[in-house]
C-alpha cells in the first residue's frame, strides 16, 4: 500500500540498492589475535564485493561513521582501488550514524559521483579501548565523569528510567527484549551467543550493572568487521544477487538534543524519554511511501534492551508508552510476532559492530536467506543509534 | 570525605565554560543566561539558541530542585570507583533556571530512597584542587 512520496525526495527514494554484503567472523573482545582490525576491515569489504559479483577494484567510494579508524585512503592502498571519488564519515561519536552512512553512499551514487560505494565498520574492542569503560575524551565529559556518569549503559539508562516514570513501564519488559533476541541467535552460528539460550529467569538473576539495567540488557563487546556495497538499482539488477532496494534513508536530530543522554541531559523535557528518533520517522515513512504498520520485519539498534522499547514508539510501530506491552506480548519474535526484530540476535546476542551487523541481516531477510527467515518479508526497517543525538534509519525492500 | 573518591576525574574547564566552574570555588552555582533575552542555557555555549546573542550573564541560582531521572551504578567503569559502588547519579531539574538540569548525585539518599520527583537542595562537596562540586542533599 504505497502512498505518494514527497516531491522533493521522490527522485532519491528507491533509486539505489544494496548489492553485496560481507562480514568476518565475530568473536568476543580479544578473541581475534591473528589479524588486525584493519585486516578484518579489508576482508569484509572484499567479501561484500565478491558477494555482489564485483571485482573489489570496481569500488570507487567509501562511507562509514562514528569512530571508525580505517580511512579510505589506507583502504585504497590495501585493496588496490584505482581511484576514490567519494570518501565520507558521518559525524557523531556513536552508532547513530550507521545507516546514515548508507544514506550518504546512496546520495553519492544517485548524484552520479560514483558507482559502487563500500559502506563499512570494523571494530575490535580487544585491540583498542572498551566502549563500556570510562572514556577520557567523551564530549562534555566535565559535566558527567566527576559525578560518576561514564559509560553508555549508565547514560542511556537515564531516559529509560524517566520512561518508566512517565508511562509506568515495567522494568520486566527489558528481559523480554533480551530473551527474544537471544532466542533468535540460537539458529545463527555466527552469533556470539549461539548455543547459549537464556530464560527470563536467567535474565532476572543476572547481576545488576546500572539499575535498571542488568548484565544481559547490555550489548556484547566484539571483534569483527562488516561491509556492504551500495549501487544504483539499475546496476544492481545486473549483478549476482537479488538487489535489496533502499526505499528510504534518513538522518535527523531533534531541536535541542545535542548529545542527549550521552551529554548533559538537557534535551527537551517533552522528548527526554525517547531515543530522539521521532524526527527520523517523520521523514522516513513518507520517503518510503509506506506506514510503520506495513513493515514485515525490523532490525532495531539494541546496544541496550531499553532502546528497542523506546524506538518502537518513536518509529510509530506502537503508540508512545505502549512499547513495553508490545514486546511483552511477544511481538518481536520471529514466530508469531507482529514485527519480528533482530532476527540474527542483534547487538545483544549476535555481536556489536556499533549497529552495522544489523544491515547484512536486513539484506538477508530481503533476499529470503535469513536463518530466521520471516515468511514473505518484503520490507525491513533498520535503525541506528540509541544514546547521543544523531539518529538514522533505512527502509529496505525486495 | 566527598561522595566519590578523590581520584575520580575532575572537570576540565574550557574558554567557553570556565566561569561556571570558577564560581564553584566560591560555592556559588551560576548558570549561563542570555543578557538580551534572558534564556538560561546549560552547559555553557557561545550563542543563545533563542536569539543568537553572545552577551551573557552568569546568574546565581538557589540550588533547589528535584530529581528528574536517576540511575544507581553497581558496576564501576573507572578504577577510582570500584569501592564507591553502589552510588547514584541523578539528573536534577533546577527550580529557578528554566528547564536546566545538572548531572549530579544525591549524597544522602540510599539506592532505595531514590525516586523521580525527590526534592533536593544544593550541597557543596569539597574535591581536590581547593574547589567544590555541586552535589545535592534531600531537601
TrEMBL record, chain A:
Any matching Pfam family: Thiolase_C_1
Gene3D superfamilies found in the cross-reference section: 3.40.47.10
Residues annotated as domain Thiolase C-terminal: 272-393
InterPro entries cross-referenced by the UniProt entry: Thiolase, Thiolase-like, Thiolase_C_2
Source organism, top-level taxon: Bacteria
UniProt-recorded name of the protein: Acetyl-CoA acetyltransferase
Biological classification of the source: Bacteria, Pseudomonadati, Pseudomonadota, Alphaproteobacteria, Hyphomicrobiales
TrEMBL record, chain B:
InterPro entries for the chain: ChsH2_C, ChsH2_Znr, NA-bd_OB-fold, Thioester_dehydratase-like
Domain ChsH2 rubredoxin-like zinc ribbon: 26-56
Pfam families referenced in this protein's UniProt entry, alphabetically: OB_ChsH2_C, zf-ChsH2
Highest rank taxon of the organism: Bacteria
Recorded coiled-coil stretches: none
ChsH2 C-terminal OB-fold domain span: 58-124
Protein name: OB-fold domain-containing protein
Organism: Aquibium pacificus
Amino acid at each position: 500500500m504505497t502512498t505518494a512520496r514527497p516531491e522533493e525526495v521522490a527522485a532519491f527514494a528507491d533509486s539505489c540498492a544494496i548489492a553485496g554484503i560481507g562480514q568476518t567472523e565475530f568473536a568476543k573482545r580479544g578473541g581475534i589475535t591473528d589479524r588486525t582490525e584493519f585486516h578484518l576491515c579489508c576482508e569484509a569489504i572484499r567479501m561484500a564485493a565478491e558477494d555482489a559479483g564485483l571485482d573489489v577494484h570496481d569500488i570507487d567510494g567509501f562511507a562509514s561513521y562514528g569512530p571508525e579508524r580505517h580511512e579510505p585512503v589506507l583502504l585504497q592502498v590495501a585493496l588496490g582501488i584505482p581511484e576514490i571519488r567519494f570518501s565520507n564519515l558521518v559525524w557523531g561519536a556513536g552508532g547513530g550514524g550507521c545507516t546514515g552512512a548508507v544514506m550518504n553512499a546512496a546520495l553519492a551514487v544517485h548524484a552520479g559521483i560514483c558507482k559502487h560505494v563500500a559502506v563499512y565498520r570494523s571494530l575490535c574492542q580487544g585491540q583498542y579501548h572498551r566502549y563500556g569503560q570510562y572514556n577520557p575524551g567523551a564530549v562534555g565529559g566535565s559535566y558527567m565523569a566527576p559525578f560518576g556518569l561514564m559509560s553508555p549503559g549508565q547514560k542511556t539508562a537515564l531516559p529509560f528510567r524517566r520512561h518508566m516514570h512517565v508511562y509506568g513501564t515495567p522494568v520486566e519488559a527489558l528481559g523480554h527484549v533480551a530473551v527474544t533476541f537471544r532466542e533468535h541467535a540460537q539458529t545463527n552460528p555466527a552469533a556470539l551467543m549461539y548455543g547459549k539460550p537464556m530464560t527470563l529467569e536467567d535474565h532476572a538473576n543476572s547481576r545488576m550493572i546500572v539499575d535498571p539495567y542488568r548484565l544481559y540488557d547490555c550489548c556484547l563487546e566484539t571483534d569483527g568487521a562488516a561491509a556492504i556495497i551500495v549501487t544504483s538499482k539499475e546496476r544492481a539488477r545486473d549483478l549476482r544477487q537479488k538487489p535489496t532496494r533502499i526505499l528510504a534513508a534518513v538522518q535527523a536530530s531533534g531541536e535541542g538534543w545535542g548529545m542527549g543522554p550521552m551529554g548533559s541531559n538537557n534535551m527537551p523535557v517533552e522528548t527526554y524519554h525517547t531515543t530522539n528518533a521521532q524526527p527520523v520517522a517523520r521523514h522516513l515513512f513518507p520517503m518510503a511511501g509506506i506506514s510503520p504498520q506495513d513493515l514485515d520485519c525490523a532490525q532495531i539498534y539494541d546496544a541496550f534492551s531499553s532502546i528497542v522499547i523506546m524506538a518502537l514508539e518513536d518509529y510509530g510501530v506502537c503508540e508512545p508508552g505502549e512499547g513495553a506491552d508490545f514486546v511483552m506480548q511477544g511481538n518481536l519474535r520471529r514466530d508469531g510476532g507482529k514485527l519480528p526484530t533482530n532476527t540474527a540476535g542483534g547487538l545483544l546476542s549476535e555481536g556489536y559492530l556499533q549497529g552495522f551487523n544489523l544491515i547484512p541481516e536486513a539484506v538477508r531477510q530481503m533476499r529470503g536467506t535469513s536463518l530466521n527467515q520471516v515468511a514473505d518479508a518484503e520490507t525491513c526497517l533498520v535503525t541506528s543509534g540509541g544514546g547521543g543525538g544523531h539518529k538514522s534509519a533505512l527502509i529496505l525492500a525486495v | 570525605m566527598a561522595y566519590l573518591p578523590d581520584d575520580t576525574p575532575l572537570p576540565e574547564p574550557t574558554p567557553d565554560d570556565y566561569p561556571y566552574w570558577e564560581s564553584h570555588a566560591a560555592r556559588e552555582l551560576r548558570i549561563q543566561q542570555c543578557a538580551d533575552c534572558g534564556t538560561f542555557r546549560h552547559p555553557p555555549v557561545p550563542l543563545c539558541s533563542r536569539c543568537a546573542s553572545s552577551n551573557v550573564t552568569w546568574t546565581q541560582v538557589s540550588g533547589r530542585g528535584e530529581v528528574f531521572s536517576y540511575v544507581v551504578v553497581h558496576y564501576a567503569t573507572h578504577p577510582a570507583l570500584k569501592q564507591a559502588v553502589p552510588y547514584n547519579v541523578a539528573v536534577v531539574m533546577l527550580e529557578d533556571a528554566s528547564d536546566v538540569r545538572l548531572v549530579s548525585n544525591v549524597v544522602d539518599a540510599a539506592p532505595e530512597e531514590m525516586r523521580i520527583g525527590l526534592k533536593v537542595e544544593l550541597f557543596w562537596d569539597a574535591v581536590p584542587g581547593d574547589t567544590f562540586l555541586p552535589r545535592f542533599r534531600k531537601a
